[in-house]
């Protein structure tokens, strides 16, 4: 029973990973090695060592979205997921995350970023809370 469940999750994650990558015109695979407890990512367009930091971060977002889609969870949180992304990959990744949140009826998402989120439009099911930048040497948070 456990193997069937693991296989089901693996297949769903592989399909979702390929789908998420295709949104940027990339192709890739998730390779599960359950026996050795390893997961490998393959971007078939490029050697992984030649990927930019932004492309690696984008691939990581695709992996997260794929795993989230493959397994149900009522609350999903990410902190500083876009910190190493360039502006283009940040905008695209943020758009993908927001679209994913809109498609998930019974899941709450909390996305925390120190980056500018002005390109995220509040709307049905989406709230943006902007906190003031901290002051240097500030010992207590302002209320």
TrEMBL record:
Keywords noted in UniProt: ATP-binding, Chromosome, Coiled coil, DNA damage, DNA recombination, DNA repair, Nucleotide-binding, Nucleus
One example of a Gene Ontology biological process annotation: double-strand break repair via homologous recombination
InterPro entries given in the database record: P-loop_NTPase
Location in the cell: Chromosome; Nucleus
GO CC annotations, alphabetized: nucleus; site of double-strand break; Smc5-Smc6 complex
Molecular function as annotated in GO: ATP binding; damaged DNA binding; single-stranded DNA binding
PANTHER family: STRUCTURAL MAINTENANCE OF CHROMOSOMES 5,6 SMC5, SMC6, STRUCTURAL MAINTENANCE OF CHROMOSOMES PROTEIN 6
Family: Belongs to the SMC family. SMC6 subfamily.
Name under which the protein is recorded: RecF/RecN/SMC N-terminal domain-containing protein
Organism of origin: Gigaspora rosea
